[in-house]
Amino acid sequence: MHIPLEHYLIVSGILFSLGLLGVIMRRNLLVIYMCLELMLNAANLALVAMSRFNDNLNGQIMVFFIITVAAAEVSVGLALIVALYRKRQTAHVEDLTTMKN
Amino acid sequence: MFENLAWLILFLPLLSVAAITLFTRSKPRASAQISIFAVIAAFVLSLIVFVFFRGSETNSLPQASVPWLWVGDFKADIGLRLDALSLGMMLIVTGVGSLIHIYSWGYMKDDPGFARYFASLSLFTFSMLGIVMADNFLMMFIFWELVGISSYLLIGFWYEKASAADACKKAFLTNRIGDFGFLLGILMVWAVLGSLNFQDLEIRLVPHMKDYAPVATAAGLLIFCGAMGKSAQFPLHVWLPDAMEGPTPVSALIHAATMVAAGVYMLCRVFFLLNVPGSHALEVIAWIGGFTALLAALIAVQQNDIKRILAYSTLSQLGYMVMSVGMSGPTAAMYHLTTHAFFKALLFLGAGSVIYAMHHEQNIWRMGALKKKAPATYWTFMVGTLALSGVWPLSGFYSKDSILAQALETNHIALFVLGVFVALLTTFYMFRLVFVVFFGGARSEAADHAHESPDVMTWPLRILAVMSIIGGVMGIEGLYTKQFAPNAEGHAAGFGQQLLAPFSHSPLAAYLGLFAVIMGLGAAYALYSRSLFDPLPEKLGWLSRAMRNRFYFDELYERVIIPFTQEALAKFANAIDRWIISGFMVRGASGTTDLVGRALRLLQTGSLQTYAFLLVAGVALVLYLVLLR
Amino acid sequence: MSGISYSEILKLVAPEMLVSLAALAVLAIDLLVMREAPQRYRFWTGAAFAGLGCGLAIAWLLAMNPPPHSMSAGLSLLQGTYADDVLVRLVKVALLVMTLFTLAISMESNFTDHIGEYLALILLATVGMMFLVSSENLLMVFISLELTSLSLYILTAFNKRNVESAEAALKYFLFGGMSAAFTLFGLSLVYGLAGSIQFSEIYSKLHAAKIDTLLLAAIVMTVIGFGFKIAAVPFHLWAPDAYQGAPTPSAAFIASGSKVASFFIFAKLMMQAFAGAEGNGAWRHFTPGWLPVVATVAACSMLLGNLAAIVQGNVKRLLAYSAIAHAGYALLGLLSNSQQGMSSLIYYIVTYGLTVLGAFGVVAIVEERTGDASISSFAGLGRRQPLLGLCMMVFMLSLAGIPPLAGFFGKFYLFTAAIGAGKDMGMLWLVIFAIAMSAVSLYYYLQVLKQIYVVPAVEDSRPIVVPVSSRIILSLLALVVVVLGCAPELLLGRLITAIKLASHQ
Q: What is the ipTM of this complex?
């Protein structure tokens, strides 16, 4: 069965938008992180599909790297949440408003 | 070989700054001596180069330039241009500058910042010489800004005084507005003509006229913006009177003789860019100059602070010069600039001497009868007043006359009438000042105990007075004619002929000018020769009030324009940064239940997500701009 | 594949290796040997090693010039994952110099006990930037961008005593993550359209292609990631918070080194890979492409950055908004889309980086001594510590673009590049705007100077004691700003030759 490129791209676009919406709307920092990951994975999906249709492996190699980088990013992000939680006992974005001019 | 001396002239004052800041900061007397020596040496060297130039029969000495930055299309040199225009101006800057340096020795004697003062003065001289000698726009602009900075230092010399601090900020910011236009004008000229060097530009202008003509008006007016800021033309005139917060010799040097003249000088330097067929820039320049002359003269009539009267008088005279440039008369403008430098510096220094004598009292209605207490000051001040009013045969008469004649020649009848009227006002307010300060009875304790200033202060006055008297018959006009109209015949050869030239050249201008002087003098005598207070406010009512309040321009700027442009805009921008928070909080609170309301209420979750939303909105906006248009 | 041996590759990446090794060494020494030593001592040792690494890297870069193994001026290895030419080397040197200065201005702050980690992270961020500037490949761009960003996030969170620090880092991080996702999505589209991740191949595929919706979307999304890194409106919102909350040396590094690298690769990507998809950014003649996108972003940045800076009460926040504005000016260089534009961009951003490092250096000291970085804590600085006041004056005036300082010449050269670009002065509208905005900007820089020189210190007017080392460093930076303003050729001449050489490969 042949699935055209557009379908992959549309799915990845939807995933990306869902992730973006989550980042904007969810209140818990952890959930926001997950939504960020969703955005990255949407891009990954697009890359894999493109790689398949371009008939070269560049895209797939890129995906591997991105997965690795995303793991590093999560570790940094979680560390930051922990640092914040120790200070403020909260993981909710609405509490992050101490800085104004 | 003489042209190499020019480098020395330029850098002597800078060396003096370096020497003072590095070595003699803690020794006030030595600092002052270094600074005074530097400026006098620069004057002597200028004189040598000048004599050489007069003997050389050329229009300009070979340019000495050092490549500064040559990259790709972009070439900038550090070069000196030595012709009649710049040499004349150099003599003024260093000559009048020397006298003011010497005078400062006496005036600033007890000030704790003596060394700093002289270092700033030298820095100023250096930057001013840079403007004058620059052979390209970029260098001129750099020194232009440097002059701004050094004058900022000098105006704010007594920075402990809040008014001085505010004044220097005002001066700096107002000048920036002018410089904004100037820089843009320079860039425009560069984009069209592909050069920044004045000589190159003049050569390139002819073949590129087709390209330049369409932008000539815009470019000319933008360049004029720079002059508007420096030479304090309406509507950027507000900084000059406030700048009088600086020490009086500074006012004499910067706000009378040199810096404010830089605008006029610059216009003359690039006159060939303004005087382009099809360009309306000159017309606008003439009218702005004329308007400034009138406005400032009217304001001067009702001021009571001796330095402010002179400040507005300076504004008015600068308006005269700018008007003259606008009427295609750079020769007359430079002529008036030169004589004005003599007598206005004289008047400011005289005022300084009066203030010194009165122990820093500046209100003229607390003075009086100083004629006997300070005779040297009185006589020299009188000479300056007569010259400024334009009394034959003092220098002011000739230069003012040549501007009026220029107006007639170019058929600017309205501006001619305006010019004559301003001449009348000038005589009126100057003699009001003289009568109140030097005649009548002493109006205060201090006036009773006034004393003459020391010799180190009165001698510069005497020298300037002599220059103010003979300035009209020294052949200054011929010098500038050589620059701007090399083919024209010289005016009068013999001394006697020169003395009477205006009457034969353009009798209407000469006689009307004298008539205006007599009227002004008569009016001032009638009103002020014996009065203890100012009779005008009663007679003129609201007009006098408006004049005294400077036609409310400062208030207009401070209460309307500045708050609007600066603070409101800034708050607006800050608000944009957070518009969603406040905007949607209100809406959320009002309990909207529709879909939009709900979606927006979600945005209140915290500023971070507001930011995220804004980012997405920004992305959407950019995408919209790019894709859907 | 290009037949180049591993030893050659190792030689090429030696500067990066040196800095990485220095990072590891600093970490190891601090954790293993120096644990018990007093803080100052630890810092000096760590900084010495870090500085040694950077110094060796600089020496290597300068000594091995031009690249020894090829006749041409530069080379691009392994599908563009590592490009090397004179220009890249020059930018790397600039980056390393900024790292050195960052290390130097960190010396006076004692916000953390984890000195080894702190220094190592600065070095790792530098490595990321160095790889970033020498990549001509989308994958490499992404990875080195992430390496830089991740290090900077942690550097932002380093002040554990301050509540704001962690919060700032989180905001920075979430924003970074989002824009990274956008960029990645954009890059994936670019890859899909061009079938390659190498700049030169993308160019050869795309320059003749019709500009369609998908390509534009790809370009815009790619721009977002860089817009975030250079803090251009509307991707700037993290900057004020991050600058304010971050430890001052970290903020200085974010504002200087990271910006230089991002600007450079941004310009390279746009001018090399997307050449042919410029469109037109002239007023009222917008045609789709990346020029109008960047022009809009530049105009917004100048407007918002300058105006919002006026009302700021915290100097770090003020510098953040001023950074946004400066990003707007610098984009003019990119908009010129020419060699002159590139040289003006690099000159501007490098001098800006040095200036802002100095400014943050002064802020760091004042913050350390007075407790906060609000504008009012600068009151009376001119008398409490004349040298510091003088340096700050030089930095502020240079940022405002007053001659003869570097900032003035940078702006002037940028404007001439922009005004000469395209037909009929197409960018004139933006230049007018930029000059007007830089006139506005003087206002808030003067506010700071007014505090320093005019307003007397309120509570504490005792002199501020500053160690000699800091004095030397700040004076050095001020001197550089002055010298680069008076003799721009020193830097610009090299840049231009390098750009000419690089474009011939």
A: 0.93
Tell me how far apart the alpha carbons of residues C173 and C238 are, in angstroms, rounded to a whole number: 9
Minimal Cβ distance to A20: which of B603, B608, B616: B616
Q: Which band of pLDDT confidence, cut at 50, 70 and 90, is reported for residue B532?
A: low
Residues of chain C with C-beta less than 8 angstroms from the C-beta of B78: none
Closest C-alpha to B241, from B163, B179, B178? B163
Best probe of the A interface among B607, B611, B615, by most A CBs < 10 A, is: B607
Please check whether residue A90 lies inside any domain of the structure.
yes
In a domain, C339, yes or no: yes
- All chains having 3 or more CB pairs closer than 8 angstroms to chain B: A, C
Q: CB B574 to CB C311 under 8 A?
A: yes
Does any CB of chain B come closer than 8 Å to the CB of residue A98?
A: no
What's the gap in Å between the CA of C294 and the closest CA on chain B?
9
Beta bridge partners of C75: C84
For residue A25, being part of any structural domain is answered with: yes
A2 min Cα distance to partner chain B (Å) = 31
For residue A61, what is the domain's CATH number? 1.10.287.3510
> Which of B225-229, B338-342, B473-477 is predicted with the least confidence, judged by mean pLDDT?
B473-477
Task: Choose among A43, A87, A101: nearest Cβ to C311.
Answer: A101
Structural domains of chain A, count: 1
Q: What tokens does B576 get?
A: 């944009």
Higher pLDDT, B291 or B3: B291
Is there a contact between C118 and C112 (Cβ–Cβ < 8 Å)? Answer: yes
Question: Which residues, including other chains, have CB under 8 Å from residue B58's CB and lie 6 or more apart?
Answer: none
| Distance from C-alpha of B306 to C-alpha of B246, rounded to nearest angstrom | 14
Q: Is C236 within the bounds of a domain?
A: no
A97 touches chain B (CB under 8 A): yes
Query: For residue B180, what pLDDT is reported?
Result: 82
Residue B577: burial class (beta carbons within 10 Å; 0-12, 13-18, 19+) = buried
Residue C228 maps to a domain: no
Q: How far is C181 from chain A (nearest CA, A)?
A: 5
- Local confidence band at A101 (pLDDT 50, 70, 90 cut-offs): very low
Expressed as residue numbers, the domain containing C412 is 278-505
Q: Which two tokens stand for residue C88?
A: 């890249």
User: Whole-model pTM?
Assistant: 0.83
Query: What DSSP line would sit under B541-599, residue for residue?
Result: THHHHHHHTGGGHHHIIIIIIHIIIIIIHHHHHHHHHTHHHHHHHHHHHTT--SHHHHH
Higher pLDDT, C260 or C39: C260
Test A96 with B616 for CB contact under 8 angstroms.
Answer: no
Q: Do C154 and A76 touch (CB under 8 A)?
A: yes
How many independent structural domains does chain C possess? 1
Number of H helices, E strands in chain B: 32, 2
Q: Assess if residue C368 is contained within a domain.
A: yes
Q: Find out whether C164 and A98 touch, Cβ atoms under 8 Å.
A: yes
Q: What is the pLDDT of residues B31-72, one digit of tens each?
A: 888 888 899 999 998 888 888 887 777 777 776 677 776 666
For A62, the domain range is: 5-96
